[in-house]
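Hi R.,

Here's the chain you asked about this morning:
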Amino acid sequence: MSLSWNLSEGCNPFWADDKAAAECRFHYAESSATEEEVVKDDMETALEKAMELLNGNVKNESLYFMVEWDRPSSTLRLAVTNDRKAQDAADVVTCRFESLNRQLQAEGPDSVAACSDRVKFWAKDYLSTCTEFMNYSLVALYTDTSRNETSIV
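And here is the predicted structure, written out as tokens:
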């Protein structure tokens, strides 16, 4: 299934308390996937979308490519950001997996944690072979909690 991309300026359609939202354009989509292979494909599609926007997003102050997974809502957020992880580039990609979220919440905390581990692995797998990403000296970081608690992808 292919994702249908939309644009929201200055407002993250999935995270109302997104502090960086006012200065960003959100390229967003929703996935109805629940099967692992389809979820992986949709996540890779979101990563591809972020790579399409990479050239326009990387500036002198850019240091990180943030892969953020919001466990409570099963929402992926991809952004280029500065050394303090505070100033995101203009274009942010976000994808919500609402059907997957309902399934994970019904299965319990172990399934939620296992899904987060898979998301991190898929991001690492994708970025480690992505030519567009390799053209920049960005450090890929992953978090499923906060930007203060990240790990290298």
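One quick note: The chain has a mean pLDDT of 95.

Cheers,
M.
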